[in-house]
Amino acid sequence: MIVDIAIGDAYGAGFEFAPREKIERFNTLMRFVPHETGIAAGHYTDDTQMSIAVCEVLLSGGPASSDEFAEAFVRCYRRDPRQGYAKGLQGLFDQSRDGRHFRSLIRPGSRRNGAAMRSVPLGLLASVAEIDQVSRSQAVVTHDTPEGILSSKVVALMVHYALYQDKAVAELARLVERDTGFRLRGDWHGEVECDAIQTLHAVHTALLNNRSTSGLLRDCVNYGGDVDSVAAIAMGVASVSLDYVDDTPDVLRRGLEAGPYGQPFLLQLDDSLRKRFPRLASRSR
Ligand SMILES: [Mg+2]
Fold it and tell me: May I ask which residue range the UniProt record assigns to the signal sequence (predicted)?
């Protein structure tokens, strides 16, 4: 799960708000591409790092409270500062001694997709009631808005239905609407802003239109805009769904960054998730 999120994130990161010519030339899955802002090829960004933080809270066995999530977000950033965060948020992380300090500094009024992009692991929670509670707890740390909270819950529910109830991707919109009242669109096209609701529609449309991870990755990037978040979420959902053939090219599977929080760390984290949430082991590739 987390490796797939990281592949989507790192592949998409090279194309985040890139000009159309770059997408047309390099969105071939032949290799990771660097981003002009300084993100090296194969390096993941905030989407994966914050998903790691969410995993660490879920694995800790302690309460999945907003304070615990804040602590994990700050800890993961400070031990491994990396590119890709919104400048304002990164500035707050740089100033924050710990989660409590961070919460005293932030004004969490964002309607952007930051709460959604880290919510795939929340689908590991075994009940919808728990997802409802925990997605809210994590979202409000940075995105205490109806859109921020909803977007976290919708991502977690998509993962949960695919993983625990073997639901087909074509059924996800109906189930999400039943449980949240929110209608996922299946006809998104064009550039995706850093917007919570647009991101949900784009992820869902790409999932509906593909049955392989290679097609999924290419479609996510082809939208243009905030494509690393779209690809990270979509690859995370696909990783637990029975609907997708995993044909992610080896050059991407093997080409993720090394280093202390690179591929070996992510593989180990996936292993820990499979032990803690045995249902995930049934989807392991
Ligand atoms: Mg990112």
Answer: none
